[in-house]
# Entry
Amino acid sequence: MPHITITNDLPGIRGLMAHRRDTAAPLNHLANTLLREPASLSPGERELIAAYVSHLNSTPFCSGTHGAAAAAQLDGGQDTVEAVFAGPDSAPVAPRLRALLRIAAEVQQQARPVSDDAVAAARAEGAEDSDIHDTVLIAAAFCMYNRYVSCLATELPAEDSYYGEAAHRIVDQGYGTGYPQAGSRDTAPAAEALTT
# Structure
């Protein structure tokens, strides 16, 4: 049961956003910029970084949603996501992404500089400054999103199909700047809420 009264039946961060509409737009804008706007890392790779950090933070709502979004956009689908959750070192991902996932794990562990070794390993696999920057920012932002969702004890979705539906919305529409209507499970395309 959530620690605060949420005036809708939406799970996870979607319920919080419908409850506090003033914070929904900037949080959605940040997620869309980090995960959907053009960048050297593909949207699927960036979703996988978000999902992996959420998994490390033991936040099932966020790891489930972003894992499904990553699976919908990456070769190997959900098997690749599960392999990364089990351990990126043996997961079937490109060496550059594997090295960036190690950087993301360091960011998740503690607010201190990422190790020189992790950065050097990523550069050796072809990572550029923009890849390292984006990985650190995604990992840091998802630590915040995960704590928002977990620390207020938000509800998990009741339906098993939730994560697949969320992935479909994310892939098709991205993260809008709006929020779901209070008490509604449906959103208009232009008002899609962050579904971490």
Q: What stands out?
A: Residues 129-151 form the longest helix (23 residues). The chain is about 60% helix and 0% strand. The chain has one domain: 12-180.
